Structure formats: C-alpha cells, structure tokens
Amino acid sequence: MTTAFKAVLFDLDGTLADTLPLCIAAFRSAIEPATGAALSDAEIVATFGPSEEGTIGTLAPNHYDACMAAYLAHYERLHSGWPDLFDGMRSLLDDLRARGIRLGLVTGKGGASTQLSLHQFGLADCFELIETGSPNGPRKPDALRIILATWQLASTEAVYIGDAPSDVTAARAVGMPVVGAGWAETSDNAALAAMAPDYLATSVDALRAWLLPRLAAPDSTAWLRIAQRVQALSQTGLGFGPSPYDAERYQELLQLGQRMLHHLTGVPLPVLEHEAATHTGYATPKIDIRAVIFRGTDAILMVREKADGGRWSLPGGWADVGYSPFEVAVKEVREETGLHVEATRLLALWDMRKHPHPPQSWYIYKALIDCRVLGGGMLGETPETTEARWVTRPELPGLDLSTGRITFSQLERLFEYADKPDLPAACD
User: Fold this and answer.
1) Among 8, 124, 192, 206, whose CB has the most other CB atoms within 10 angstroms?
2) Which phi-psi region, left, alpha or beta, contains residue 321 (left: φ > 0; alpha: ψ -120 to 50)?
3) Distance set, CA 360 to CA 51, 61, 224 (Å)
4) Which residues contact 321 (CB under 8 A, 6 or more apart)?
C-alpha cells in the first residue's frame, strides 16, 4: 500500500457495537402487535438493506406510520439495556481523533435511530460526516463517494470498516480499501473472507494493530485547534486585568499563537495582529451568517465570491454589531444579490470545527437562516460578488465551492429543509 489513510469510515450495527439484535428486537416489538404475525429473526434480517423505513414498508405496509413510530420508541427504550461499544472501540476512536484522522459514519440505518445510538454511546460529536440509509434500498457506495468528494480525498486515502459482505462490495465499488469487522457474534466471517477484504479483523485490537501503521502523519487540524485555544486563552487572560508580570506572559502567548496560526493558515501576521487588537476581553467564537433561499424544492440561491476567486457560496458574511442575526441575513442578501428578502427562521447553527472546512485563524460558528424573496431584482455584479443565480440540486457536486463558507455536505443537509420545512433546526 502506497497511500496512507487520512480518513477512517465506520459502519454502525455489528461494527461499532452489537446493535443488530437490538434492531431485531425493536422490529419484532413494533410489528408483531400490529400485524398479529410472528416474525423470525431470519424474516426480519432478510429485509435489511434499505433503512428501517424500508423494513417496515415490507413487513407491515398497512400499518406503516404506527409501526415506524413504535419501532423508534422500542429502539430507544431497549437501547439503554444494550451492551456498550465493542471492547477497545472507544479508545480506538479517541486515538484516531487525537492523530487528526477524519472520522465518518456510513450506515444503512435511518437517521433517527442512528442519532439515538450515537447519543446513547456518547458519540454524538465523534464523526465529522454521517451518511445514513434510504428506504428505497442500499446506498452505501453513493454515501462513500459523497464523503470522499466532500473531503476531497482519493478513494485510496480512506478505509471503510464494516461487518457485512455488502460493506466490502460497497467499498470495492468506489475503489476504497476495506476491513471486514469480524468481532461480533452476528458476523459471518467465512462470508466476509470470501469477499477478500484488505484485512479481516477478528477483534478491535487486531484492527488497531493493522490500522495504526497505515495512517497518514497528523495533519494541521490538531495543531490548528491548539493554536486557536492558545490565542483565546491569552486574549481572555489579557482581558481580565492581569498583573504586569502575567500580562507580559499572556502577550507572549498571544504572539506565539499568532505565529502558529500564520504557519497553519497562511494568513499574514499583520492581519492576525490587527484582528487580535480589535478583539479584547473574554474570547468567544466569531459568527458567520448565511442566508438560505430556496426556489421550490430543487434550487437554492448562490453567489460567486470575489474574495475567494469567484467560488460559490450562500449570501452572507460576519455578524455586524448593531444588527440582529435576521437583519444581517437580510442585509447581506440585498447587498450581494439585489433581492429583498424576509428572514423567517434559523435552520442550523454549526461549529466549523465539526465540518470539513479549510483551516481558519478564528474559531467560528455558522448560522444558516431561512429567507423568502419579497421583491427586488437580481444584480449581475456587486462589490462583493461577480454573479448570483439559482443553482439546482444536481449541479451542486460540480460547483467550485468556497469551502471556507459552505461545504457540499452542508448544502445537502440544507436541502432536507426544502423537502421537509417542518424539520427542527440543526445545532452542533
């Protein structure tokens, strides 16, 4: 192998934890009372591939809504009594994160049950990207491709860990190395071995021994977080009126943090020094506000940013003192597109650290605000943008995005609100 792994992607059921029996028990508890028919484990497992919605649609089509709600209720009720992660898995995940390795989750489960499990296991903030299943059938190859494209990785720069022969097939379909997870009682190791994965691990410790020597050297991500924290702590220390002795040390720490940020992000030192001089007192994240404007369910308003070489983004910018978040969104849309809009609600509040953005010198939260057009006319060019237009969903993968402002995975997530306007706001 010539390419070291920069990312590790995991399946969930049977790979992170022994949750397949939990799924079967929840299905049985939900479906049998509604249909009056007894179900064997084999009958339930035979429907796997689609997400839970597909299983319910196959086994209880005349009771879909009631059984779907019951399944999630039983899944949550039973989960607390189920075993924790497989032995060694938690420490492996911690070690991978400490090394700066990007972690993703690709599962056939539905979104609701996936989040229930991640919260139950204390992994809600472990994975940068999560791709869940579809009621229409298996979609793991597409999910793997989406993560590779979002992180701009070659297929050989990531490895997928899964316990089913179909996981090996999915990884092979995108040219990705794959490890068969053969440590669960439910795993069919003979079937896994027949698929010839790159490695068949019969324990998490065996996976660790195979995986760690094949990881890429730590990138700048971990050092960036350290530099941001050094800058924040020194700014906060200076803001609380320290003694002259301590103030001198805090000032030196601030300068060291700025030098680290300069090397990690390429931002010139004078710019970092000017920004630090204008931010005093207790250090808090900066707020980037972006307006989300849909045309129906298949198009979103985007602009080309002059400050980022004409790359595409959502209208928006830094939160301004004296303006509420909604007022900032309205103002930015007017200035960058010429349209007059009304801000209606907050769709998402995201921590940039948890998303695949390039390195930034500041710690940043992103607020995504839903807006609707009231009037005005689209401008051809503004002082900040060279173009504004409606971009359809199929066009998104081909856009040259301003990834410091918005990523493909975030746009995909936002389009869920176009399809389902009543979804609750997302918050990291």
Assistant:
1) 192
2) beta
3) 37, 49, 8
4) none
The tokens describing 79, both together, are 């989960």
> Strand 158-162's sheet: what is its strand order?
129-131, 102-106, 7-10, 158-162, 178-181, 199-201
pTM: predicted TM-score of the whole model, two decimal places: 0.57
Q: How many helices (H) and strands (E) does the chain have?
A: 15, 15
**Residue with token string 């021994």:** 209
Q: Which residue has the higher pLDDT, 218 or 143?
A: 143
What are the φ and ψ backbone dihedral angles of 231, each rounded to 5 degrees? -65, -45
User: Where are the extended beta strands (E) located within 299-363?
Assistant: 299-305, 311-313, 316-318, 339-351
- pLDDT-derived band at 222 (thresholds 50, 70, 90) equals low
Coil, helix or strand at residue 67: helix
360's enclosing H/E stretch is: none
Interval 186-201 mean pLDDT: 95
- Tokens encoding 27: 């299905």
pLDDT tens digits for range 369-381:
999 999 999 998 9
**DSSP conformation letters of 49-60:** SS-HHHHHHHH-
CA distance 90 to 373: 47
Which residues touch 266 (CB under 8 Å, ≥6 apart)? none
Burial of 81 (0-12, 13-18, 19+ CB in 10 A): exposed
Q: Select from 376, 407, 383, 424 the least CA-distant residue to 302.
A: 407
The DSSP line for 92-144 is: HHHHHHHTT-EEEEE-SS-HHHHHHHHHHTT-TTT-SEEE--BTTB--HHHHH
Total Cβ atoms within 10 A of residue 161: 25
Q: Whole-angstrom Cα distance, residue 198 to residue 177?
A: 6
The region that residue 368 occupies, defined by phi over 0 for left and psi between -120 and 50 for alpha, beta otherwise, is beta
User: Which amino acid, residue 1?
Assistant: M
Q: Determine the Cα–Cα distance for residues 273 and 387; give it in Å rounded to an integer.
A: 33
E strand or H helix at 229: helix 220-239
DSSP string, 264-289: HH---HHHHHHHHHT--SS---EEEE
